[in-house]
Amino acid sequence: MLSERRLEVLRAIVQDYVGTEEPVGSKALTERHRLGVSPATVRNDMAVLEEEGYIAQPHTSAGRIPTDKGYRLFVDRLAGVKPLSTPERRAIQNFLDGAVDLDDVVGRTVRLLAQLTRQVAVVQYPSLTRSTVRHVELLGLAPARLMLVLITDTGRVEQRMVDAPAPFGEAALADLRARLNSRVVGRRFADVPTLVQDLPEQFEVEDRGTVQVVLAILLETLVEETEERLVIGGTANLTRFGHDFPLTIRPVLEALEEQVVLLRLLGEANESGMTVRIGHENAYEGLNSTSVVSVGYGSGGEAVAKLGVVGPTRMDYPGTMGAVRAVARYVGQILAES
């Protein structure tokens, strides 16, 4: 276990290195921070931190820089989440409140996160498999042609055309709409098949064929888009950090093109808590020089998807964690109100 003073020295090294991009020496630490000890004592503390693997000496520089292990201890023990200022919170709210539909919400969220953190932003679409039904609408377009509209609790809207085997009257259509909604509204998609399986028997024999077709298309819609979708933005921000990537930025860019890699990085969508993966904690080798900060978002306090940022390990962790958490909270509010 490190002493409180050595933890303070590590905190100061991380803060200075993130701020200046330069390896940090003992003299600079004692000048910039009120550590209450001499430069010789700080040098001794730095030697212990280096021996324990929390900091390292790059090349022949006299200064030290944090290692992945040092950043991890900083995030776990030393870094509070930096709250956003009132103008920043207001800007987030104003920007996201203008969204007109789910695609717009996701697109705005990506741009906002990239601007706030000046890093690469990744936003996962709410998954249908974790959604509930908000409403099912049925519209008669012609005597034997209907439109089915499925609206989820996350604001997702799916439309399907239904070609009925026989004409379907307005009264039967209104009856089917009412019976469907009474059974499935507020229920998880996985529960819907058993909730509607006996519905055709509630109708006249000549209408049962159409009811069965409507139900078949509804159930297809519930499982059709289970693949995960991601939107990414701010990739150009990485060019500002060229010297943070030891060899080349190319492996990072290649990894960011792989949706499967990014989904794995974000973690399981139903995990609502904040996750910070630092450097070699990322299983994908191309991202060993990056850190990923992610959090779940959703309506009603339950996460339906994840959002986060990817940047160099030399990251403003408190500020990034604060921005990611704040944006996730606002997106959740919008989904709850939509």
Tell me the number of helical segments per DSSP (H or I, 4 or more residues long): 12
Largest sheet: 5 strands, antiparallel
For the largest beta sheet, what order do the strands appear in spatially? 7-3-10-9-8
**Basic shape:** elongated
Based on secondary structure, the structural category is alpha+beta
Radius of gyration: 26 Å
Oligomer: single chain
Q: Runs with pLDDT <50, length 5+?
A: none
The count of β-strands is 10
Helix content: 40-55%
What is the mean predicted local confidence, pLDDT?
85
Proportion of β residues?
15-25%
Compute the separation of the termini in Å. Answer: 49 Å
Element pattern in H and E: HHHEEHHHEEEEHHHEHHEEEH
Any chance you could write out the topology, listing elements then pairs?
Blueprint (H helix, E strand, L loop, with lengths): L3 H17 L5 H7 L6 H13 L3 E2 L8 E2 L1 H11 L7 H12 L4 H16 L2 E5 L8 E10 L2 E8 L4 E7 L6 H15 L7 H5 L8 H20 L5 E4 L16 H7 L2 H8 L8 E4 L11 E8 L7 E8 L4 H21 L1
Explain what this protein looks like in three dimensions.
This protein is α+β, with helices and mostly antiparallel strands and 338 residues long. The protein has twelve helices and ten strands. The chain has helices spanning 4-20, 26-32, 39-51, 68-78, 86-97, 102-117, 170-184, 192-196, 205-224, 250-256, 259-266, 317-337, and strands spanning 55-56, 65-66, 120-124, 133-142, 145-152, 157-163, 230-233, 275-278, 290-297, 305-312. Strands 7-3-10-9-8 form a five-stranded antiparallel β-sheet, sandwiched between helices. Strands 4-5-6 form a three-stranded antiparallel β-sheet. It has a two-stranded antiparallel sheet with strand order 1-2. The two termini are 49 Å apart. The model has no long low-confidence stretch (mean pLDDT 85).
